[in-house]
Specification:
It contains 9 helices and 9 strands. It is α/β, with parallel strands linked by helices and 275 residues long. The strands form 2 sheets. It has a 7-stranded mixed sheet with strand order 3-2-1-4-5-9-8, with helices on both faces. It has a two-stranded antiparallel ribbon with strand order 6-7.
């Protein structure tokens, strides 16, 4: 299994440095909150109640420490990818410590290894901006089904291939044409399209560095698939599945089909009640 690796803008030296905080132990986090955190946490609470929740691809533990205020949540990520930035370890440990969470809440695992949770022990699974980085999708969905309790559910929030703008580089349709990716990145960046102008201004990236790093990153770590592929693989692994749009959009699958062109969407999976 793969999950989000270190992006070009998250490598050692760029990793967030934790500041000394006056927050009291156990207080809810107030910094670096993503707008989708509250709704995903609310969904997990409605599904899991007091049961165990697992986040796949926990990255810098931002959602984990936020959701831990109301959920029994545990996280994991891939050592060879997200853990390749050695500066990430102290960030994760610092966040866990800052919010009064045990180190056991976050586990680093090797690529393609089973999820480190007992079969049938988890009420809900979530992943945030991770599914587009998963290579062996069947393995991930199979492991999701294994660890879920009967009737348990999973929510994956991610960009599908249908999205018009490749979200990492900010270049329209880049992920639709892999053989021409290098040339498209260079051409678009020279024209001021995408994230290169900001990287050049804020991080002193040269055009050559931007093209090389994003071409490598997208080739090695990103696996954009059409929505249909996620539904087919879910069914193959014994999970009922549907797409829903993020709020405040109407919660209907047809809305998700439209919204997928411009935003990340939810893939909701459910393990049968009698499994």
């Amino acid at each position: 299994m793969e999950s989000p690796p270190t992006r070009p803008d998250q490598r050692q030296g760029d990793t967030e440095v934790l500041k000394v905080s006056t927050r009291k132990r156990g207080d809810p986090p107030t910094e670096n909150l993503k707008p989708y955190y509250p709704h995903i946490a609310k969904w997990a609470k409605s599904v899991a109640g007091s049961g165990k929740v697992v986040e796949i691809g926990s990255g810098d533990a931002g959602f984990l420490v936020y959701a831990a205020q109301s959920l029994d949540i545990h996280g994991c990520d891939i050592l060879e990818h997200a853990g390749s930035d050695k500066g990430r370890f102290p960030v994760v440990e610092g966040r866990l410590r800052e919010f009064g969470l045990d180190r056991e809440r976050y586990q680093w695992i090797e690529q393609n290894s089973p999820l480190p949770f007992a079969s049938g022990s988890v009420a809900a699974v979530v992943s945030i901006q991770a599914l587009e980085h998963v290579g062996p999708l069947g393995l991930l969905f199979s492991e999701t089904r294994r660890i879920l309790k009967p009737g348990g559910q999973a929510l994956h929030y991610f960009p599908a291939k249908e999205m018009w703008v490749e979200p990492h580089s900010g270049i329209p349709f880049l992920h639709w044409f892999p053989p021409s990716r290098h040339d498209i990145i260079r051409f678009a960046s020279e024209g001021g399209i995408g994230k290169f102008p900001r990287y050049a201004r804020e991080r002193r990236y040269s055009l050559a560095k931007f093209v090389k790093e994003f071409d490598h990153y997208l080739a090695k770590f990103c696996h954009f698939r059409p929505m249909k592929a996620y539904l087919e693989e879910s069914k193959k692994q014994g999970l009922d599945a549907k797409f829903l749009p993020p709020p405040p959009l109407p919660q209907a699958s047809w809305v998700a089909n439209v919204a997928a062109r411009v935003t990340s969407i939810y893939l909701i999976q459910k393990k049968e009640d009698s499994a």
